[in-house]
Amino acid sequence: MIKQKKQGNLIIISGTSCAGKGTVINELLKRNQNLTLSISYTSRKMRAGETEGVEYKFVSLNEFERKIANDELLEYVNYSANYYGTGKKEIKELLDQGKDVILEIEVRGAQKVKEMFPETILIFIMAPSMEEVKRRIKARGKENNEQIIKRFQTAYNEINEIPKYNYVVVNDEIKKAVEKIEAILLSEKCRVERIEEIAVESQEEIIHEFLINKEFDNSPLYQDKLD
Ligand code: 5GP
């Protein structure tokens, strides 16, 4: 009776430093076959432990600028002196196949995509407290004090942008955060805007069918009337 749009949903997941975005997204991908993660282009250098085509498609600065000039990117930003951007063609193909596509991008890129495609679902993931962020950054032990302060400043600035998002998910426990996002995605699938067509038989038709098939005959109400 209800025909829904075949096109997948575009989902943006952003979050503060050490909010556990990566872990939550990996878990979501493992549990939901229809979800896929868009792999961005970046001009930043590959870090130890990263693999080409897994975390990013790593390209040179020239190649990135060529993509901008050719209008190949849905959005891009210059973040911490490096370019990051989402490929236009790849996203369109995945959505057309009916896949739900996650973009793991920062706040400015999220806004650009939302302006172009207002139906995009914007989810912001947060650590339970800034104390917890501090604890996680220190536990990672990768940054010096100056870098930790910078990360903190960025996190505070990003928190100010939360009102631009549709949903906020506090990641105090991975499993719970994943379940919350799954609930969001399920509700979004049921949105009225996703309905393409509703075909309802007319009441006369239904009554007529009932009469022809004499479906009333055995109903207690009908029997009462006959008595
Ligand atoms: P990192 O260098 O730590 O991998 O990423 C830095 C930031 O860039 C993260 O906040 C990440 O979400 C964001 N980012 C990654 N890919 C994209 C992209 O394609 N577009 C935008 N706008 N941000 C991105």
Describe this protein's structure.
The chain is an alpha/beta fold and 227 residues long. It has a single domain (2-198), classed as P-loop containing nucleotide triphosphate hydrolases (Rossmann fold), CATH 3.40.50. The protein has nine helices and eleven strands. The strands form three sheets. Strands 3-8-2-9-10 form a five-stranded parallel β-sheet, with helices on both faces. A four-stranded mixed β-sheet has the order 5-4-7-6. Strands 1-11 form a two-stranded antiparallel sheet. α1 (21-31) packs across α7. The radius of gyration is 25 Å and the shape is elongated. The mean pLDDT is 90. Guanosine-5'-monophosphate (5GP) is lined by residues 40, 44, 75, 77, 79, 84-86, 104-106, 109.
Short summary of the structure?
The chain has helices at residues 21-31, 61-69, 88-96, 107-116, 130-140, 145-159, 174-189, 203-212, 220-226; strands at residues 2-4, 10-15, 35-37, 41-42, 57-58, 73-79, 82-87, 100-103, 121-126, 167-170, 195-198.
